[in-house]
Amino acid sequence: STLLTDDVAVVTGGASGNGRAIARRFASEGADIVIADIQASPREGGEPTHELIEAETQSKATFVECDVTNADDLEAAIEAAEEFGGVTVMVNNAGIFHGEDFLEVDEDEFDRMMDINVKGVYFGAQAAAKRMIEADGGRIINLSSVAGLEGSGEFITYCGTKGAVRLLTYAMAARLGPDGVRVNAIHPGLIETTMTTDDYPIMGTDAEEDFLQAIPSRRAGQPEDVADAALYLASDLSDYVNGESLVVDGGMTNT
Ligand code: NAD
Fold first, then answer.
1. pTM value?
2. For atom 32 of ligand 1, which residue has the closest CA?
3. How far from 55 is each of 17, 48, 77, 159, 167, CA to CA, in Å?
4. Of these four, 88, 120, 184, 247, which has the most CB atoms within 10 Å of its CB?
């Protein structure tokens, strides 16, 4: 439990779901944590992630109200990490999903999804990179999706945003590698969070069985599965892994 003892992680969207699991996992390995989210409490219910971390680990944790569509908010989240010694790991996790048909999506919905899923990743990475370059290194982890690897006719806008995250990750890795900053993406498949139980209900519906048939591991992923992948990319275990896409989908994509 000492993989991240010298680390300070900023996790956007860290109040809920995947971000919450990532923050808790990092804290269990010794990292101090800044939760940067529009809300402190998890969407799925429960106590605020930063409070839970302080109760269950030796790590320090704080919450910063941060809307990732606002670059100033992202700068403030990075600034908040100075209290713990400065950000060394940035997790651009905040994201939204929708199931509107291509023919129904209007400009406002398109812009909102691009702002959160793409612009948020871009300026989150930029704010972190400035600080990491000063400190001679760091790691940036961006949450894409299997929807950033393959097109789906059911959620076209989301695919577009997650494909953009994938290429931003590769391009940022090229730019920042010489400065000692590694940039990698995680591509989760079907993960049981409020996104897949409420926003776009798959879990607990007829669609769940179809998904499970397409997943060789025959189960939905849990946020902890994503968190373990993030831990690998955040730690020195992945020291020579840069500009990579780590798919965490129980085998769904390649089979
Ligand atoms: P979630 O809805 O459970 O959590 C998302 C978190 O982001 C929430 O805490 C929410 O408050 C926060 N958030 C939303 N808008 C924000 C904003 N503008 N600024 C700051 N924070 C904001 O979702 P999740 O399933 O945990 O998703 C996390 C990431 O994982 C997303 O990028 C998502 O696209 C990706 N992902 C999820 C799945 C899945 O099956 N759940 C699959 C692939 C990828």
1. 0.99
2. 95
3. 19, 11, 22, 38, 38
4. 120
